[in-house]
Design goal:
The chain is α/β, with parallel strands linked by helices and about 210 residues long. The protein has 2 domains: about 130 residues, Ribosomal protein L4/L1 (Ribosomal Protein L4, Chain: A), CATH 3.40.1370.10; about 50 residues, no CATH class. The protein contains 7 helices and 6 strands; from the N terminus they run ββαααβαβαβαβα. Strand 4, helix 5 and strand 5 form a beta-alpha-beta unit. Helix 2 crosses helix 3.
C-alpha cells in the first residue's frame, strides 16, 4: 500500500497513513478521464436556442384571399416561412447534449484522476481543516504555508468557515467528499483532502 504523510494546517506532520492502491495508486488511463470530462461539460450545455415555426407564431388564422381567380399563387396563411413575420423553417429547437456513461466508467475515471494527482506528488492530506472564523486572509495564509495556489480542497463534512473564507480566492475551490468529480480534480493543480475525506472516498470507490 502507498503511504502518505498527514499534516495539520501549520504544515507540521502529525502522522502517516496507508492509501488504498485501487483508489489512489491505480493505473492512470487518460481516455477514461477524457470521456468523463466530456460527459460533465456536455451535461452543462444549456442547448436553449429556440425558434418558432409556422404553427407557433401568432396570427394567420384567415386565408389571405380566395383560392382561384386572383392570378396569384394560392396561399393559406401569412405565417408561412416565406412571409415576413412568418415562422422559421427548420430553425433550432432546445436540445440535450448529454450522453450516457456507465457507472463503472465514472468510478474508474475518478480513481484515475485521484491517482494522477497522487503520482504527480500533488496530493496532500490534512488531519482536519479548521479556521477560527470566516477569514479569507487566514485561509490564504494556510495555502501559502503549503505553497499552493491552484488547489481543490475536499472536506469530509460541511464547514462554513472554510467554505465562506475560500469564496473570493481565485483558482481555489472547496468541495465536500460526496461532490468530488473528475473535472474539478483535473482543473486544479493541487488536491488537498482531509483525513475523513480520504476514508469516505476509499469507502465509495474501493
Amino acid at each position: 500500500m502507498a503511504k502518505i504523510a498527514i499534516y495539520d494546517i501549520n504544515k507540521n506532520q502529525v502522522s502517516e497513513r496507508d492509501l488504498d492502491d485501487s483508489v489512489f495508486n491505480a493505473d492512470v488511463k487518460g481516455y477514461l478521464i477524457h470521456d468523463m470530462v466530456r460527459y460533465q461539460l456536455a451535461a452543462r450545455r444549456a442547448g436553449n436556442a429556440c425558434t418558432k415555426n409556422r404553427s407557433a407564431v401568432a396570427g394567420g388564422g384567415k386565408k389571405l384571399y380566395r383560392q382561384k381567380g386572383t392570378g396569384n399563387a394560392r396561399q393559406g396563411t401569412n405565417r408561412a416561412p416565406h412571409f415576413v413575420g412568418g415562422g422559421a423553417a427548420f430553425g433550432p429547437k432546445p436540445r440535450d447534449y448529454s450522453f450516457k456513461l456507465n457507472r463503472k466508467v465514472k468510478k474508474a475515471a475518478l480513481r484515475c484522476a485521484l491517482s494522477a494527482r497522487f503520482q504527480e506528488d500533488n496530493l496532500s492530506v490534512l488531519d482536519r481543516f479548521e479556521l477560527e472564523g470566516i477569514s479569507t486572509k487566514g485561509f490564504v495564509e494556510v495555502l501559502k504555508r503549503f505553497g499552493m495556489e491552484n488547489v481543490l480542497i475536499v472536506l469530509d463534512e460541511a464547514n462554513s468557515n472554510v467554505e465562506l473564507s475560500a469564496r473570493n480566492v481565485p483558482r481555489v475551490k472547496v468541495l465536500r467528499a460526496d461532490g468530488v468529480n473528475v473535472y474539478d480534480v483535473m482543473n486544479h493543480r493541487h488536491l488537498v483532502l482531509t483525513e475523513g475525506a480520504v476514508a469516505q472516498l476509499e469507502g465509495a470507490l474501493a
